[in-house]
Amino acid sequence: MIRDNQKNFSRLHVVVDACVITLSYFFAWVLRFIGPFAATAVRARSFEQYMSALIFILPAYILLYHAFSLYEPMRMQGRRLVLSNIIKANSLGILITIFILYTIEEGNISRSVLYMFYGICILASWGVRMLIFYSLRNMRKRGLNQKQVVLVGYSRAAEEYIDRIRENPQWGYVVRGILDDNIPAGTMYKGIKVIGRIANLNVILPESRLDEIAITLGLSEYYRLEEIVALCEKSGVHTKFIPDYNKIIPTKPYTEDILGLPVINIRYVPLSNTFNSMIKRVMDIIGSIIGIIVASPVMLVMCILIKITSPGPLIYRQERVGLHNQTFWMYKFRSMEIQPEAEEKKAWTVKNDPRVTGIGRFMRRTSIDELPQLFNILKGDMSLVGPRPERPFFVEKFREEIPRYMVKHQVRPGLTGWAQVNGYRGDTSIRKRIEYDLYYIENWTVGLDIKILFMTIFKGFINKNAY
């Protein structure tokens, strides 16, 4: 029933968004051609021609809203996150629209209408969502639209679930108590009491008006799962399972159905999906070509400076480990004096390293030495965004020392990444870098890639930890 309600709410939200997008576009047209901006307007297309564009704009925007998670339950999303996703979806939408108009050489559609539509749609979509958000929150404050929950099993999962519910009262969950066979009745955790044994479900369920039962058994009690699920489902109350496996699967798993057999994958990697991988590869090819064209003057100047300041090759090749643990040659502008290969492999560059040339120090600080990797991206060895690749020597070292280190090789390495734009570059904690890399791998979206590229432009090039 709850899942059906969520689906119905999502469908309703799509309908509301369709109305908001349509009205925003219409209002932008009115402002430009009838309202206060009409005096300077040149109407080269009819009203009907403008409105017919909605045939393409409307489904495209609904898909973008879906891609940026704007149809997830609002009780589980922060307001700033929702606003950020609305801005990202609309920004990508207007860029795609302008690009298509430029490609088909359509110059008679007013760009002012599109820019007004962009601003109005963001404000209207945000306003509608906040109206819904505050309406539901006020209902929950009055005791309406709340979900009454009982937890079955006292475990770390139960404690973490209670912590999150207490930190997010806007979700509207009320935990009535915990049932457990090993913890004495009356034991409290942050105001939530152990109210009896698991067998008491037979008494509690008929007497209480519960909305949900959350099974939060400890790992050692999973042998009882089938029995407890059967007991809960007799009540007809919605039942969910919150597994206590954070030490085994510390990040989010996902399930798939193999002819009726549910399979839990320990790690969710969106880029293992062929469609997602294809989209990212297209972005990489287009992005690397544009990057090479834009950066070509800078790369030419660097070639001249490297040649006149230090003898040796312009481009330095270094073996790195990439997708599926396969090695490749990564390109960089040479920033160090020529040295024996065995010496070079020994360690990272350190502060005031005498091997770094004068121009090399500048290139490292500004990340200009990384520009030749645009050709690695074009070849398919790397991606615009992803975990930074490491040398085989350090991969062998870290795979033994750092849990989950090798997961980073399930995707292509990147020119920039989530760890790098958050300050973990150069001589910084490798463990923190892996945490950020894993977050990126398991939460990849086109929107996240765009966000990282923008962050790289504004704060990712200058690297105080680069020596």
From TrEMBL:
> Which EC number(s) does the record attach to this protein?
2.7.8.31
- Is-annotated flag, keyword Membrane? yes
One Gene Ontology MF term: undecaprenyl-phosphate glucose phosphotransferase activity
Q: Which residues cross the membrane?
A: 12-30, 50-70, 82-104, 116-136, 285-308
Q: Any signal peptide, and if so, which residues?
A: none
Where does the record say this protein resides?
Membrane
- An example Gene Ontology cellular component term from the record? membrane
Q: Which UniProt keywords apply?
A: Membrane, Transferase, Transmembrane, Transmembrane helix
Q: Which residues form the Bacterial sugar transferase domain?
A: 280-459
The way it spans or sits in the membrane comes to:
Multi-pass membrane protein
Going by the record, the broad EC class of this enzyme is transferase
Instruction: Note the Pfam families from the entry.
Output: Bac_transf, CoA_binding_3
Keyword Transmembrane helix included in the entry's annotation: yes
Which domain of life does this protein belong to?
Bacteria
- Family per record: Belongs to the bacterial sugar transferase family.
Name of protein: Undecaprenyl-phosphate glucose phosphotransferase
Q: What is the lineage of its organism?
A: Bacteria, Bacillati, Bacillota, Clostridia, Lachnospirales
